[in-house]
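[agent] plan:
  1. take the single chain provided in the ticket
  2. run structure prediction with default settings
  3. attach structure tokens to the ticket
  4. add a short note for the reviewer (M.T.)
[agent] executing step 1
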Amino acid sequence: MISMSISHDCRSHDLCSGIHGYSEQCQRRVADAERELGAFVAAVSRLWGPSAAARAAEYWIALAEGLSPHSVDSRPNWRQLTVLASSRLALDSRLHNFSVQGAEGR
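[agent] step 2 finished; step 3 output follows
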């Protein structure tokens, strides 16, 4: 599953730095991140197909993994991360191939 990079054990993931142990707050952060990533990947898959969705997930996960522990507040803005990943995907030269493939299936 694409979201497996997000759902590591909360105790060792930067997503939950500053949170001691396996807390409810950490579980919520991970669940929120998984929901946002899942919605993003599903939307990209519907529009441009599974190859573009895989690329979108790679961008999103790379951005999430690059978050500084100090930049992750009590409620990270996952939507903003999705917008950044969308921008990267739009600039990806391979997107043109994805859009052609996606349009053929309609």
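[agent] step 4 note for reviewer: Residues 1-5, 7-13 have pLDDT under 50 and may be disordered.
[agent] ticket updated
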